[in-house]
Design goal:
By secondary structure, the chain is of the alpha+beta class. It contains 2 helices and 5 strands, in the order E-H-H-E-E-E-E. It has a single domain (2-79), classed as RelE-like (YaeB-like fold), CATH 3.30.2310.
């Protein structure tokens, strides 16, 4: 699968790189796993119903979620920091 990072996800990634290395490692593992099995696995993958089922999230920590879309043969990461759309 192709991996696409939207601008918000890239800026979120920079926050993790400059911050908590423990959560950065978990985020990296979640990204890799998501490209292999987008709808199952660790991080409690959840279809976001309020978006019509087009977006998914995985738990990075109690406070932070990774939000992504499955578009054909690509995983599009929309947000990697914060809780769903609270800080978008």
């Amino acid at each position: 699968m192709k991996i696409v990072f939207q601008p918000k996800a890239l800026s979120d990634l920079a926050i993790w790189i400059d911050g908590d290395s423990r959560h950065l490692k978990k985020l990296y593992k979640l990204i890799v796993e998501t490209t292999r099995t987008p709808t199952t696995g660790t991080g409690n993958p959840e279809r976001l119903r309020h978006t019509g089922g087009q977006l998914w999230s995985r738990r990075v920590s109690m406070q932070h979620r990774m939000v992504y879309a499955i578009e054909g043969d690509a995983i599009v990461f929309l947000s990697l920091h914060g809780h769903y759309w609270a800080d978008m």
